[in-house]
Amino acid sequence: MAALDELTTPAGDGDTVCGVRARLVAAPADTAEAAALIRAAQGLSVVIRGGGTKLDWGPPPRELDLIIDTRRLSGVVEHAAGDLITVVKAGTPMSELHGLPGQQLALDAPAGATAGGTVAANASGPRRLRYGTARDLLIGITVVRPDGTVTKAGGKVVKNVAGYDLGKLYTGAFGTLGLITECVFRLHPAPAAAAFVRAVAPPGQASKILAGQFAASALEVNAAPGAEPELAVLVEGTPAGVRERAAAIAALLDGEVSEQAPDWWDVSPWPDGGVGIKLTGRLSQVPALVATAVGAGATVRGSAGAGVLYAGFPAPNSSPGPATTGIGPSSPASASSSATSTSAGDSSPTAGSTSTGTSSPAAVSTGAGRSSPVSSSASTVSPVVGPGAGTAEGTVEAGRAIELLRAAAVRAGGHAVVLTAPAGVRETLDMWGPIPGLALMRRVKDQFDPDHRFAPGRFVGGI
Predict the structure, then answer these.
(1) Taking the model in full, what pTM does it have?
(2) Of 393, 381, 382, 374, nearest in space to 356 by CA
């Protein structure tokens, strides 16, 4: 234990994960020190902390002895511009990687997020439509396994086909299989020009952009109860090409071209203390999925071109107030959401489809034209706000709305995962929901972390 005493300090009041406080905190400076720490910490439960931007995602750990902070594992080790790759330590802020000279790591992430945390969560943003997620851009990785063994996978060559691609296994594992200490990423040239096209239009209009072969880098939707939905398209490339494509998209959507992204761009649709859900589905079902979520009182943002959406409900509010329809123009929660916009609103299914099982205040549209909000009086689902939302009744309503969205996502050919929720709601939910391949995931966990010490209980099925 002497080695452990040398490498750790007592945890403070802020050293918590989803309300569970750690006993110890350590911040190793390099891979060797991290390996020594983990070897000395055998028998202790461990959670990895990067920038903390997603530390409240997922269930709380069953137990927590040690937080390993990666803030000292920081810095760009190598930037090989000719090979379009960069090698970085896991604690490097993503803001440093967004400013590489002449090149870019095309992963949208909060400035405070770290490279390792972004990989561990397989995070991505609007530009996933063109560039993919962390899983697609990671080509090499160094990890300290729970027994203290240092392992490496991949390399510094983009077309590396040697051995098992273990980087993809660690990506999205939420720190349950080991501590990431170093990452190798594929880079892309920084675009010479970029422009945004913004239009008030239902999600069904996204199919026109995809069919038009405009090579959009991102195609995002923003919809909230009580207002009209909005689409925003990012095009990148040469100045002449960007001008031509942006003008054509603006004419197609009856929108406007801007050099600036909308205020809601790449901003989570839930406020602090709210409920955040990730929804996926087939592209043809995106309009119906958006309509169902908005009908349940959620604000929805995400990629209408990749079928990856995020739904947000406001924080529970136990005091009576005028709002009973979720995040909307009359809701107090709309003031706390940095992305609420008067041009955001309801959306509807494409022609011939329905809102996947419930009548809702979603806008009525064939998907080919403008939509407009309608009365929410026909809704069979009580939105997760308003009087009583902070009580047991409000928690039940939150659970019902989440199950509604989970069922809608399954019908859309995808799934729904609750990323974050207040304690009262979190404790009543299976945040991950049913996931195929759970038995295989358990076997992988048993092989990599036989004692189940790393992030215990935070992953699928309580892994």
Answers:
(1) 0.84
(2) 381
